[in-house]
Amino acid sequence: MIELRDLGQGDVERLFQWRQEPDVDHWLFESPPSDRARHTAWFDAFLCDPDRRGWIILQSGAPCGFLHLVGLTSSQKRAHWKWYIGEPVARGRGAGRAAQALGLDLAFSSFGLQKVWSEVHAGNEPALRAQAAAGFRREGYLRRHSYKAGVYRDVVLLGLLEEEWRARRGVVLHELAVSGLIAAT
Question: Which domains does the chain have, with CATH numbers?
Fold first, then answer.
């Protein structure tokens, strides 16, 4: 069963470890801090920033990933969406799809957003499929937009409007509940 819980001070080491994981780092836009002091400074700034909100993705009660929104204080009522599955055993088993659905419910109901958008490296097929399953639409393609470790990569821009989520919400949540990934709503 996939659930979300608020990010807390006790998650600092877990996120440091996940961000060092090669399969996570490969898809991140920025290289993770290489030392704990820099990571802790990033983490503390994140927790204190009213423009950001983060959740730990739980699989059967155990932490397996991280999801967050950036831009919550914008008068535009839109936020940038980022997530990853940090635990290798949880990847490819629907945790990302389920976490997205739960996160989208929070984004649109609790935070009153009208749009959630994301940037995904072209070639990150699992993330692109998971976001398409939630209803995200491709809004753009940025060539050589991301640079990391000496390599330029293309980026796909995706967006989901509140009314699009509302129209898909019931079907998406029902399918996830039937599959046992989330609690029935």
Answer: 2-178 (3.40.630.30)
